[in-house]
Specification:
heterodimer, A: about 625 residues, alpha/beta, 8-stranded mixed barrel, 5-stranded antiparallel sheet, B: about 375 residues, alpha+beta, 8 helices
Chain lengths: ~625, ~375
């Protein structure tokens, strides 16, 4: 007996046998049945384990299938994402074989479909692209070999700027990503360009002008021209900014032709240009002359005929300055002179301009302080009836008592006040002061106040007059506003509207300096003036100059026909009075009757003659 | 070297040979009840005051091809030229196991140390940690083998005897010194992995909580079905094979020591690290017996001793094998005996874990569900 079963039974027999050696059948039975039971349990255990294992394996299968489906879906999503990336991407494994290359990479490298299949080697991949230069391929391979992350900026052979990034992957592979930065580079270049150039005309801006001027100064003799366009604001306001911009571009084109390659033309303001000209005064004036001529020629833009012109100031280095700041400032002053001299011309800087500019700036400064400091005073000159010499009113005349310079003449400071807009405040003060003073006079005496074109164009005149009348309590019909023809020329519709509104409250109007401006008779149709003032220039030689007489006669006749009384200014002799009387000129004003006098003197005069001033 | 049997039966008392008194080593194994009833530690120490008395509790003792479940088995050995030293340390819990191993190693370390045999508490211990601890100190040049004491498949209380006492919470190691001692080692399993490969998704130390995100205990209950009522003991039918994914060819087998139904976790005799691969194993009669036979054959080849010298085979086999084999358990001992030859005395016990040098590295490791053989002999 040597099998396992036999040995088992032997042991069972031995275990079931007592000391006497005879096996106990019950015990033997228990052992045998026990062995059967163990075998049965073992079998069942094995069978159950097999069943559970089969179920588990099925579950694993299902999970695997789901995983595969998930992976498939994920791959699809991944593929979509990859092919819709903005950047190109190519991934190579640790043997240098292509794993995946997205659509964008194909586009950037101009690779055809199927040209670089998966498995294709890195070097072969690079050589397949027609846009990679040999140098770039060499550099890319070298960088990939270093197994470090690297970035290169290159221009492909198709002129696209590309940012290439090479990145080693943890598993020994390589990732090549590419980004087309052409547009971004262009945008950056544009931004850099705009930092130094004007966006409308693409001319250098002030900053670049300054640099170019510095360079020119280092190189040798040069000059600065400052230009602005005549009447540009009017064109912009009436025809619109689009037309204004088109004009600027056309002007730029013409001006560009007048500067050489080694010279600079810049736009430094709305309608302001500057140029750096190589050479001295001769070259500068020649250039300026050409520019004036070319800009003065007619423009035709979008079927519209436009005319403009330019005024130019010239400053030459080193005489007129050795730094960009000095040259530009002095050329600007010369420009100011050119404009003052009538525009459409060029002027070279001279030192007196600087002095004049400084003086003007000082005057402007003082003028700003003058009103608050109470330095103004109104003087009054009488206006009389020619027939009987009776005083009918006074014209208010502004005087400025400068604390250091003494009395400053109106023709010195009124232009500055008008240029700076201070005339509006000053004018308001004049109105209030004049109305207040006039209230102290008899009711039959009126007050005439000059109104500047600037006041007339502004929005505050009506309110200023109304306030002055209201505060003073003066009756509106005692106030006469003297308006020149020049004032009416600009914005005539708006001007007429202001005048009508003032008329409506009772204020009277006279046309001042008649005969010296455009003398448009239209104004008399548009507006009912109360008086016409003949300018003094026609009265000066009245006794001896037939033309003056003819003009006075004509104006008097005009007034008579229109029913508008005439007042003559600058009357100094009895003979002039006689002629005026003969020509039916109703009123007169001048030294013959009285000089301009202070308010207190007016009161004295009125008291003395009770309004009946005769010729002195 | 001389080896003689020692036995104790409740009815017959001690049966010892004449040369007991000249023995310098007495090894004994038996159930905790038999140890206590026989008062073996004290009795043997009294009878042989000069001997090292060393043993532990078990499910069943092994003696010369037979299994003794009721009594106590042992051997009395006389070593002619080999020094012996028995050291011990407390093993409080699994976390302290590595320290315990190191302490034992430090205590044994010395000139001429040629090998060691360790017995440890089999319940509150991390067998792989204690093996690693002693190996840390002694290195792979000193082979270490042994086992974890058992109490059947209850996993409640085990005893380790060193000298006059046997108690729980103890680990002890016997060092062999000198140039005469010869040792051979082999292990054999016979369990086969089956079913899906899994991943340890939650564990700490020896405690396995989840496999593939699901409670580990639930998996065992599913496979054991009605036998789940016998957990943790019945878990021995399905040991767990685990491996490091970085070295998948180096698998180890783990035995369950206890379970926690509240959290669905299972405590194994050794580490089950998170992230490792795992697969259930099962055995059958032929496979288990063949595994033991294989161990026997390999063990014989590791020891080069003329046949005339007496050799002792220390067999430490796993309670799981005994549970599976049932009444046929002696077949595996028979297979070992047949492989090694009848002249080699067999002594041993069924353990909660076997310790033996790893075949590839020589470092002591915890093996589970194996037949582990340590051959001892002295060169002439």
């Amino acid at each position: 007996m040597n099998s396992a079963a036999e040995r088992l039974f032997q042991r069972q027999l031995a275990a079931a046998s007592g000391a006497g050696g005879a096996p106990d059948p019950i015990r033997l039975g228990e052992l045998v049945i026990g062995a059967y039971t163990e075998a049965e349990k073992d079998r069942r255990r094995t069978e159950q384990a097999a069943q559970v294992m089969a179920i588990e394996l099925e579950e694993v299968n299902v999970a695997l299938e789901n995983s595969v489906a998930d992976l498939r879906a994920q791959n699809l999503r991944f593929g979509l994402a990859l092919d819709n990336m903005a950047n190109g991407l190519a991934l190579f494994d640790n043997h240098g074989r292509l794993v995946v290359c997205n659509r964008r990479q194909h586009e950037l490298l101009e690779l055809r479909e199927g040209q670089v299949p998966p498995g294709c080697m890195f070097e072969q991949f690079l050589h397949s692209s027609p846009v990679l230069s040999a140098d770039l391929i060499t550099e890319t391979l070298r960088l990939a070999g270093t197994r470090t992350e690297g970035e290169m900026l290159h221009t492909y052979l198709n002129q696209r700027d590309v940012r290439l990034i090479l990145r080693p992957t943890p598993d020994g592979g390589t990732l090549l990503s590419c980004e087309d930065v052409t547009e971004r580079n262009r945008a950056l270049a544009r931004i850099a360009f705009l930092a130094y150039h004007d966006s409308l005309t693409e001319l250098p801006n002030r900053a670049l002008l300054r640099e170019r001027l510095e360079q020119a100064l280092r190189r040798g003799p040069c000059a600065v021209l400052c230009l602005d366009l005549d009447g540009f604001k009017g064109i912009n306001d009436t025809l619109g900014h689009a037309m204004g911009d088109s004009l600027l571009r056309e002007v730029t084109t013409r001006l560009r032709r007048q500067v050489r390659a080694n010279e600079t033309l810049a736009r430094v303001g709305g309608d302001e240009f500057a140029a750096v000209i190589v050479g001295g005064m001769a070259a500068a004036t020649a250039a300026a002359t050409r520019m004036i001529e070319t800009v003065g020629a007619q423009f035709s833009i979008d079927g519209q005929i436009l005319n403009t012109g330019t005024s130019i100031g010239i400053a030459v280095a080193p005489t007129d300055g050795q730094t960009p700041e000095d040259l530009l400032r002095n050329a600007d002053m010369a420009l100011y002179r050119a404009k003052a001299d009538g525009r459409g011309c060029h002027r070279a800087f001279d030192v007196s301009m600087s002095t004049a500019m400084q003086t003007r700036q000082a005057l402007e400064q003082d003028l700003r302080l003058a009103l608050a400091a109470g330095q103004f005073e109104l003087y009054y000159q009488s206006q009389v009836r020619v027939q009987d010499g009776r005083v009918t009113g006074f014209e208010a005349l502004l005087r400025w008592h400068h604390p250091e310079r003494g009395m400053i003449r109106p023709d010195h400071f009124i232009p500055v006040a008008e240029e700076t807009g201070l005339i509006v405040q000053i004018g308001e003060w004049v109105l209030r002061e004049a109305c207040k003073e006039a209230l102290r006079w008899p009711d039959t005496i009126g007050i005439a106040v000059n109104v500047s074109p600037v006041q007339l164009r502004g929005s505050k005149l009506h309110q200023a007059v109304a306030d002055a009348l209201h505060v003073s309590g003066l009756s509106a019909d005692r106030l006469e506003l003297e308006i020149t023809e020049t004032a009416m020329l600009k914005d005539s519709a708006a001007t007429l509207d202001v005048m009508r509104r003032l008329r409506a409250i009772g204020v009277r109007f006279s046309m001042d300096d008649f005969g010296t401006g455009y003398s448009s008779l239209n104004y008399f149709q548009s507006f009912p003036f109360d008086r016409i003032k003949i300018d003094r220039s026609f009265i000066r030689n009245l006794e001896t100059d037939g033309k003056s007489l003819a003009i006075v006669r004509a104006v008097a006749g005009l007034g008579s026909s229109l029913g508008i009384p005439i007042i003559a200014e600058g009357v100094e002799t009895r003979a002039q009075v006689a002629i005026l009387a003969a020509e039916k000129c109703c009123y007169a004003q001048g030294f013959l009757f009285s000089r301009p006098m202070s308010a207190s003197m007016v009161l004295g005069l009125l008291e003395a003659c009770r309004g009946d001033i005769q010729a002195a | 070297m001389i080896v003689e049997k020692v036995q104790w039966q409740r009815q017959n008392g001690w049966q010892v040979g004449d040369s007991l008194s000249s023995a310098n080593l007495i090894l004994y194994f038996g159930s905790a009840a038999a140890l206590e009833a026989s008062n073996a530690p004290m009795e043997l120490s009294e009878r042989c005051p000069d001997a090292v008395v060393f043993g532990c509790s078990t499910a069943a003792g092994i003696l010369d091809g037979e299994v003794d479940e009721t009594g106590l088995v042992g051997v009395a050995c006389h070593f002619n030229a080999t020094g012996l030293r028995l050291v011990e340390a407390d093993v409080a819990d699994a976390a302290a196991s590595a320290d315990t191993g190191r302490q034992l190693g430090e205590a044994l370390r010395g000139d001429g140390l040629a090998g060691a045999f360790i017995l440890s508490d089999g319940v509150n211990v991390n067998g792989s940690a204690i093996s690693a601890g002693i190996s840390d100190v002694l290195g792979k040049a000193v082979p270490v083998s042994g086992g974890l004491a058992a109490d059947g498949a209850q996993f409640v209380r085990t005893l380790v005897g060193a000298g006059r006492t046997a108690r729980p919470g103890r680990a002890a190691a016997l060092g062999f010194y000198g140039s005469a001692i010869r040792m051979g080692h082999a292990t054999g399993g016979g369990w086969h992995p089956f079913g899906p490969r899994r991943r340890v998704t939650r564990s700490h130390g020896c405690v396995l909580e989840e496999l593939d995100g699901k409670p580990a205990l639930a998996l065992y209950e599913r496979y054991l079905q009605e036998e789940a009522a016998g957990l943790p003991g019945t878990a021995l039918f399905f040991p767990l094979m685990v491996w490091d994914p970085q070295a998948p060819e180096r698998t180890v087998v783990r035995t369950v020591l206890s379970i926690d139904r509240a959290v669905g976790s299972m405590t194994f005799a050794g580490d089950v690290p998170e992230g490792w691969g795992a697969q259930l194993m099962r055995g059958n009669f032929d496979g288990i017996v063949d595994g033991a036979a294989g161990a026997g054959q390999r063990a014989g080849k590791t020891l080069e001793i003329p046949g005339t010298c007496q050799t002792l085979a220390l067999l430490v086999s796993c309670v799981g094998r005994r549970l599976l084999l049932g009444q046929r358990v002696a077949e595996e001992l028979h297979a070992v005996r047949a492989a090694m030859g009848p002249d080699i005395r067999q002594i041993g016990f069924y353990s909660h874990g076997e310790i033996a040098p790893d075949a590839a590295t020589g470092v002591a490791m915890l093996h589970n569900q194996t037949m582990t053989i340590t051959l001892l002999s002295e060169a002439p």
